[in-house]
Write a structure and sequence with these properties.
13 strands, 10 helices, 9-stranded mixed sheet
Amino acid sequence: MDERVVARFAGKKILVVGDVILDRYVKGSVDRISPEAPVPVVRIRGEEHRPGGAANVAANLAALGAAARLVSVVGEDAGAARLASLVRSLGIDDAGLLASPGRPTTVKTRVVAHHQQVVRLDQEDDRPIGEAAAARALGAALAGLDGADALIVSDYAKGLLVPELLAPLLETARAKGVPVVVDPKARDFSIYQPATVLTPNLLEASRAAGRDARGDGDVSLIAEELLAALRIDALLVTLGEAGMLLLPRSAPAVRIPAQAREVYDVTGAGDTVVAVLGAGLAAGLPLEDAARWANAAAAVAVGRLGTAAVSAAELAAFGRGI
């Protein structure tokens, strides 16, 4: 039964290492255009904060019943305090949220009116973290890896995942036999090896391979080239409305059709994919089964506005028949 599969995610210890983001939604209405410039005037009605980036991955894991531990770097500011509070409220271990003096917490402010995003404002410093911060993050990550059932690396290109952190972490995970799921952002995918599976979207995969995908044949060729060049076990390329392409090293490629009934907002869908994929591997599911569950979870996620975690009950209901 589907409920029994999803129930296997509960209690799995999963380490999430990556760039955390505080997603801030300012909600209001638009009734007129400004006389000062041809822009809408938004009358603010309220605001909401949600965990984003790697923190959203951890939130999805918590919603599935997994025990998530989060390692990242934040600032010494109100955004960090707000994010830590959100994470703790979800039952996520936030001891690995390390303050870095002089570096702001990444905050994305979305102004939304009538369910439409009007503008987005980003506060961030995406320069690579320094040696001291990298050493602290590595220490926290290696400690979190002890007893972990899976590792998820969530790269949002905000400066955390420097080679001094990634290389020893991934090698240690491989030595311990811990499955590693990576959501990549860098053009050079070699920094993410060794890993169990990388989950790029089509644009990210195309950039990494140095070629454009103009059809299904090109997509398959790109995936094959990347898999051949990297020390990874599989590649899962997300293709939006076309679904996913799973290319394992030791098995034939599999096309997984999209299940979304209505696409409302793709924000955070990739976080949901890696969370469910990681939870599935942690629970001992075969890679293809874990990918199909991740695909189902993405279908639920894109039917909502903004980042939102998919619960175990929702996933079990939507994923019937997988």
